[in-house]
């Protein structure tokens, strides 16, 4: 009887070790981003990471004094974006875009995208989870 309990505990612990990284990889939108802090950033794309669970891209954003800060932006999953007409070439290095987003709670230059406005004026919903258009 005691050996059965030990086997079950060992299996449970093994399952926890396997599942923990997956569970930690996905984060709650409301825990990470502040829905009460919508922001708009305009900048030049410096990097695009098109991967699951969501794409990320980075922008060089210039403030009023001319100081440049590199902002990170999370958007929806590649499959969700593809259904909206996006593909791997939608965001190109060097493109100047505007992003309507929600500021990271950490205060770091990071946000969750809601809308991306392209140089030609097209607006495309880029959000995931709770990042509904404003």
Description:
The protein is an alpha+beta fold and 134 residues long. It contains three helices and six strands. It has helices spanning 2-25, 29-32, 78-83, and strands at residues 33-49, 56-62, 68-74, 96-104, 110-117, 123-125. It has a five-stranded mixed β-barrel. Strand 2 and strand 3 form a beta hairpin. The protein starts with a helix and ends in a 9-residue tail after the last strand.
Observed structural traits:
single chain, alpha+beta, 6 strands, globular
Secondary structure topology:
Layout: H1 2-25, H2 29-32, E1 33-49, E2 56-62, E3 68-74, H3 78-83, E4 96-104, E5 110-117, E6 123-125
Parallel strand pairs: 3-5
Antiparallel strand pairs: 1-2, 1-4, 2-3, 4-5, 5-6
Oligomeric nature of the chains: single chain
Low-pLDDT runs of 5+ residues are 14-25
Please give the number of β-strands.
Answer: 6
Query: Percent helix among the residues?
Result: 25-40%
Describe the global form: globular
Strands of the widest sheet, in order across it, are 1-2-3-5-4
Structure annotation, total helices: 3
Q: Would you summarize the structure shown here?
A:
With 134 residues, the chain is α+β, with helices and mostly antiparallel strands. 25% of the residues lie in helices and 38% in strands.
């Amino acid at each position: 009887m005691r050996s059965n309990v030990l086997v079950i505990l060992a299996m449970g612990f093994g399952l926890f070790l396997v599942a923990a990284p997956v569970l930690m990889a996905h984060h709650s939108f409301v825990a990470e981003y502040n829905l009460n802090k919508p922001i708009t950033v305009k900048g030049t794309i410096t990097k695009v990471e098109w991967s699951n669970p969501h794409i990320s891209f980075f922008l060089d954003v210039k403030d009023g004094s001319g100081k440049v800060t590199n902002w990170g932006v999370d958007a929806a999953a590649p499959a969700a974006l593809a259904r909206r007409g996006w593909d791997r070439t939608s965001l190109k290095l060097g493109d100047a875009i505007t992003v309507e987003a929600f500021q990271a709670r950490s205060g770091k230059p990071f946000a969750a995208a809601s809308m991306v406005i392209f140089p030609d004026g097209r607006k495309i919903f880029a959000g995931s989870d709770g990042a509904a258009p404003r």
